[in-house]
Write a structure and sequence with these properties.
With 289 residues, this protein is of the alpha/beta class. It has a four-stranded parallel beta sheet, with helices on both faces. Strands 6-5-7-8 form a four-stranded parallel beta sheet, with helices on both faces. Helix 2 packs across helix 13, helix 4 crosses helix 5 and helix 11 packs across helix 12.
Length: 289
């Protein structure tokens, strides 16, 4: 597997959902990356990545054009995202532009009309950066609180490690990055039934979507999960708010707090629960104090 060189300076690509609906997620990522010595620069002209499922299915050419514009805006500096969908979409577009001369030529012509040049900067989800040996060492040195005895169900979702030839991160069939981070922070990573299945959020049918979420929550609960750790804004909403929706419709109660990987890491590094935005979650994390 090819790996990009690790930088300490990145252009931050926040995506749409976290910025609009989950400000605590964006804030926690910014704080934690800053605490680990990563400098983030801003590009205010970024648009949606765009969406790697619905938008790409509607028009692959328009999807590639919009993604290429985002990449070109960055000017070649490495990009870090907080959203696996954004990382997947931009990485796949980058891969196409790097390997398909015809597509690259067409996109380059379009960009020139905007007075822009084709660019294919490295793109990484923040977990890809933090999973390198250097940052694992830095994290270990900065841990102030260990979550000994906390049983954690990691949810990887669909886009964090896919498409594997473009994202080039972890094992696309059985990823371990989040479990490794959970263990590094002293907690117990759990294996559970259907661990690597979708959360159900992409389904356009609400009944199907909630049924899939309920199934995964039941599997986590059966394994003894005391917290869910993930790294996707859509998956976060599906499990945090979703637990309330499922409860109202079925009477089924899970009460499993959901944490972004950056939030659990920030708590372990000594940040206060309020700094990590845990007060904004629907299901409260009692292990934060």
């Amino acid at each position: 597997m090819k790996t990009e060189s690790v930088s300490s300076k990145y252009t931050f690509f926040p995506g749409c959902l976290a910025r609009l609906k989950l400000p605590q997620v964006e804030s926690s990522v910014r704080i934690v990356l800053g605490d680990l010595g990563i400098e983030l620069t801003e590009e205010t002209r970024f648009t949606c990545c765009p969406d790697p499922v619905v938008f790409r299915s509607a028009s692959r050419r328009d999807w590639l054009s919009l993604a290429a514009r985002n990449l070109a805006l960055d000017g070649g500096a490495p990009i870090v995202t907080l959203c696996p969908g954004c990382a997947s979409s931009l990485s796949e577009a980058r891969h196409i532009l790097e390997h398909d001369e015809a597509a690259a030529g067409e996109i380059s012509t379009k960009l020139k009309r905007l007075s822009m040049n084709l660019a294919i900067p490295p793109v990484s989800h923040f977990l890809k950066i933090l999973s390198t040996d250097d940052f694992k060492k830095t994290i270990s040195e900065k841990i102030k609180k260990k979550f000994e005895g906390l049983k954690v169900a990691s949810h990887y979702g669909c886009h964090l490690v896919r498409p594997s030839d473009a994202v080039e991160f972890d094992d696309p069939e059985k990823p371990t990055t989040m479990d490794d981070l959970v263990a590094l922070l002293g907690a117990e990573p759990l294996d559970y039934e259907d661990k690597f299945l979708c959360c159900g959020r992409p389904s356009m049918d609400e009944t199907t979507s909630m049924s899939m979420a309920q199934h995964k929550l039941e599997c986590m609960q059966a394994a003894g999960a005391e917290a869910i750790v993930l790294a996707c804004p859509f998956c976060f909403e599906q499990f945090d708010l979703g637990q309330l929706i499922i409860g109202r419709k079925t009477g089924k109660k899970f009460d499993i707090p959901v944490l972004y990987a950056s939030q659990l890491l920030g708590l372990a590094m000594g940040r206060e629960p309020a700094e990590m935005g845990l007060n904004l979650h629907k299901i409260k994390f009692k292990g934060a104090s």
